[in-house]
TrEMBL record:
PANTHER family: ALPHA-GLUCOSIDASE, NEUTRAL ALPHA-GLUCOSIDASE C
Gene: ganc
This protein's name: Neutral alpha-glucosidase C isoform X2
Domain Glycosyl hydrolase family 31 C-terminal: 59-120
Alphabetized Gene3D superfamilies for the sequence: Golgi alpha-mannosidase II
Pfam families on file: Glyco_hydro_31_3rd (PF21365)
Coiled-coil residue windows: none
Domain of life of the organism encoding this protein: Eukaryota
GO MF term (any one): alpha-1,4-glucosidase activity
GO biological process assignments: N-glycan processing
């Protein structure tokens, strides 16, 4: 494992799959319900961000770069924002934005980056339904920006109310 950067509190192990990111997905879907898209190609965010891999950005905090070509050995990723910091969620390696990376890939590993200045909540395990997910502890990953600041949101759903009383988006701020 790579040395952990001082800007990232926790490293995501390689075996953590999409189920672990449900909490950040819940925030994205809550945001969508009030203001916009859940996930969009980076090319729609800025004209210079479209990459050959067709990266997708979720909620402004996560950048996923799926492998879309058969037998691909590597994927090219342009990290948005020349004044931004990005972190590989598996290795915690820090990268400057505005540069293109050539990353080795495997079928079971999708390159995912977290933007510096963001806080992402993840489940520590996986469950077969929302009720099981709610019993699992949360893991909070803080990726500090170049000023040492990060903030984010956590959406909590009690799983049974349907009167919008369950919509709870809280701000998390770290300095």
């Amino acid at each position: 494992m790579a040395e952990v950067s001082q800007h990232v509190i926790r490293v995501v192990p390689e075996d953590e799959g999409k189920e672990k990111f449900k909490k950040s997905g819940h925030v994205a879907f809550y945001r969508y319900s009030v203001s916009g898209t859940v996930c969009c190609p980076t090319g729609t965010l800025c004209s210079t961000c479209l990459t050959p891999a067709g990266c997708l950005q979720s909620g402004g905090a996560l950048l996923a770069c799926p492998v879309t070509e058969a037998r691909a050995q590597e994927v090219k990723v342009l990290l948005p924002g020349s004044d931004e910091v990005w972190f590989d969620v598996r290795s915690a390696e820090e990268y400057e934005g505005g540069r293109t990376l050539s990353l080795p890939v495997a079928l079971h590993l999708v390159p995912v980056f977290q933007r510096g200045g963001s806080v992402v909540c993840r489940s520590t395990g996986s469950g077969s339904c929302t009720a099981e997910q709610q019993q699992l502890p949360l893991s909070i990953t803080v990726a500090l920006d170049s000023q040492g600041v990060a903030d984010g949101e956590l959406y909590l759903d009690d799983g049974y109310r349907d009167k919008k009383a369950f919509c709870c988006a809280g701000r998390i701020h770290h300095t």
